[in-house]
Write a structure and sequence with these properties.
Blueprint lengths: L1 H9 L22 H23 L5 H7 L9 H12 L4 H10 L8 H15 L3 H10 L8 H16 L2 H10 L8 H14 L4 H10 L8 H14 L6 H11 L3 H13 L4 H10 L8 H14 L4 H5 L9 H17 L9 H6 L2 H10 L7 H6 L17
Length: 393
């Protein structure tokens, strides 16, 4: 047994300068009992950490291996208490797995003095149950921030701007990292720039609650963004101005230019792209894949001209699979049977809420045209009888 152990230890090479981890030295072929003990202790800790991350925290072997480089567990007493605290506040296995994979160091935190006061603070603020679970699992760094020196001052400052706890919650939900930013300095500068450009306070609050990240941008770049949005034709006193600012600050210049070129390749002119942006700024953050599918559907299946779509960019925000195709399929069937006018404005149909559409076009005609339910549930292949049918814009 000793010969076997001796051969195994000889194979382990460790830099001689590191006396704490030295197991074998060429000058000494006889490992000490202390070195053997150190090796065994280290191996046991590593095995315990990996096993705990996988079995108790739900991490995959790959994630556990990665996380084990950031935390070493000596016993399971403290991590058990941490997990128990998280579970008692509504975090599921999935939430805990996501949280620990991002921040395994939390397993070594003191649950009573470090974690519990912060969780209680978020509870008092309005985060509980599912909302708290989403907050912590999506941005576990909020549990690393100092409660008195960072979290409380940031939340307090935020409330002086957005006025209500509800707005504070909305802002944090939109961008949890706002808690860890030096928002006092950054936001004050951006808010001053917005006011200088004539943006009302109510719209500034709207920007913070919908896109708080926009207010921690580089001040000079933010000022340039406001100028560009104004030059495009937006009025600073309108909510559409704020929406445009959100879009532009969230897009890199290269992505902005790519989106313009995409629309041009689909048949829009440069002026039509900017006109569509003025009407519906979100058309510039719609994915390229979705833009192509929607434009292709309206041009190839409904017979629209590309320029016609640019006049109604809100179309691009609808789901093509859950709204556009099913509703158009229903309308096609009803037109075929003469149950709705052939000059029906399809845009008005797409704007209806789900209940209104179902009552007006599905349940009302289901007995007379049973297939209408299949069309609504996307169980029928879409096809258009173009002759004699018109889907006006």
């Amino acid at each position: 047994m000793l010969r076997f152990l001796h051969r195994k230890l000889i194979q382990i090479r460790v830099p001689a300068k590191d006396s704490k981890t030295l197991v074998f030295s060429p000058q000494n072929h006889h490992p000490t009992l202390q070195s053997i003990s150190n090796l065994s202790h280290s191996t046991l800790q590593s095995s315990l950490t990996l096993s705990y991350l996988e079995k108790s925290c739900g991490l995959s072997p790959e994630s556990a291996l990665s996380a084990s480089k950031k935390v070493t567990l000596i016993t399971t007493e403290k991590p058990d208490s941490v997990l128990s605290l998280l579970k008692s506040h509504g975090l599921s296995k999935t939430h805990i797995s996501k949280l620990i994979s991002k921040s395994p160091q939390l397993l070594s935190a003191n649950p009573d003095t470090t974690l519990k006061p912060k969780i209680q603070f978020f509870n008092d603020l309005g985060f509980s149950g599912a909302a708290l679970a989403v907050l912590l699992s999506s941005e576990p760094t909020v549990l690393h921030a100092n409660l008195k020196n960072r979290i409380m001052p940031s939340v307090g400052f935020l409330k002086t701007i957005v006025h209500t706890n509800e707005n504070v919650l909305l802002s944090i939900k939109r961008w949890p990292r706002i808690i860890n930013c030096n928002i006092q300095t950054k936001m004050n500068t951006i808010i001053s720039i917005l006011k200088d450009h004539g943006v009302p306070e109510s719209n500034i609050v709207k920007l913070i609650t919908t896109s708080p990240r926009a207010l921690v941008h580089n001040p000079e770049r933010f000022r340039e963004t406001l100028e560009m949005v104004k030059e495009t034709g937006f009025n600073p006193v309108t909510l559409n101005f704020i929406l445009a600012v959100r879009v532009v600050t969230g897009l890199r210049k290269l992505n902005w230019e790519r989106k313009i070129e995409l629309y041009k390749s689909l048949g829009w002119s440069g002026d039509e792209v900017l006109s569509a942006f003025r009407m519906q700024p979100m058309c510039m953050v719609t994915s390229e894949k979705k833009i192509k599918r929607v434009v292709s559907f309206f041009v190839d299946e409904l017979g629209w001209k590309p320029s016609g779509i640019s006049k109604y960019p809100g179309i691009l925000l609808h789901s093509i699979d859950k709204r556009i195709v099913p509703r158009c399929s229903v309308v096609r069937l009803l037109m075929s049977d003469g149950l709705v006018k052939k000059d029906l404005n399809i845009l008005s149909v797409l704007k209806l809420n789900e209940n209104s559409f179902y009552e007006k076009f599905v349940s009302k005609f289901q007995k007379r045209v049973p297939e209408v339910l299949k069309a609504y549930e996307s169980k029928m292949k879409f096809g258009w009888e173009k002759e004699g049918q018109s889907y006006n814009s």
